[in-house]
Design brief:
3 helices, single chain, 8-stranded antiparallel barrel, two-stranded antiparallel sheet
């Protein structure tokens, strides 16, 4: 390669050297303005977008889907600051034994659970806190959070041998203490309505004795997962 270059005319070599110098000068001319910019200057040119301000109060209903069945609830929330929200909620849902197996009776047109003694329903009242996550990272139309609540739970049992609604005439109550932990998110930028979804794990310990769902099997604690759709109003 060096042999070939040495054989070039002297004028051609001079032109090549001049072209190299021009390219180097152009490179420094372009790079110099960027070298003089500090990281602080870049930050000042692109300040973070301020967070959306939503109404501090909200109330609405919870539609619950769990491994134990379907449920309904209601909630009231009060935002304390950007990250923290206090809440109180109450719900009503079925609490089945994990060993229950339903069979469809084609002659009666109904589902049957063998050895079932009582239907069990749980009515937890919980007070807790909700903590917002990634408020400066994710756009405000997706507001994830974690939450936890504690409180008393009333357990209502009705005889499985009776028709569903008539059985409430023979209902009995037990009481438990517990709560839940969960995570979820609120969606959208509408400042008058609230739409969200969350997943919760409920646990409660019966205070005295237990409840019998299946024959010979007394439950002393109630637990289960729920996927919950939140629909409400903000004000």
């Amino acid at each position: 390669m060096l042999k070939k270059i040495s054989q070039l005319p002297a004028q051609s070599v001079k032109l090549q050297n001049a072209a190299k110098k021009i390219i180097i000068l152009c490179f420094f001319a372009v790079a110099l303005p960027f070298i003089s910019i500090s990281p602080q200057g870049i930050g000042e040119l692109a300040p973070p977008k301020p967070l959306e301000v939503f109404p501090s109060n909200a109330w609405g209903m919870d539609i619950m889907f769990g491994d134990a069945g379907f449920g309904l609830g209601t909630f009231l929330r009060k935002q304390i600051d950007v990250k923290w929200t206090a809440f109180i909620d109450v719900s009503f849902s079925e609490a089945k034994d994990e060993r229950e197996i339903e069979y469809y009776d084609p002659y009666q047109g109904t589902f049957i659970t063998f050895n079932k003694v009582n239907r069990i329903f749980q009515v937890p009242l919980n007070i807790g806190l909700q903590y917002r996550l990634f408020e400066n990272v994710i756009a405000d139309n997706l507001r994830p959070y974690i939450c936890a609540g504690v409180g008393p739970t009333m357990l209502v049992t009705t005889p499985a041998s009776e028709e569903f609604f008539n059985a409430f005439g023979k209902a009995q109550a037990k009481y438990a203490a517990g709560g839940y932990v969960g995570f979820g998110a609120n969606f959208g930028l509408d400042k008058s309505s609230l739409v969200g979804i969350n997943v919760r794990y409920y646990y409660s310990k019966i205070l005295k004795g237990g409840v019998e769902s299946l024959a010979g099997r007394e439950k002393t604690e109630i637990q289960g997962f729920f996927i919950i759709l939140n629909l409400g109003l903000m004000y």
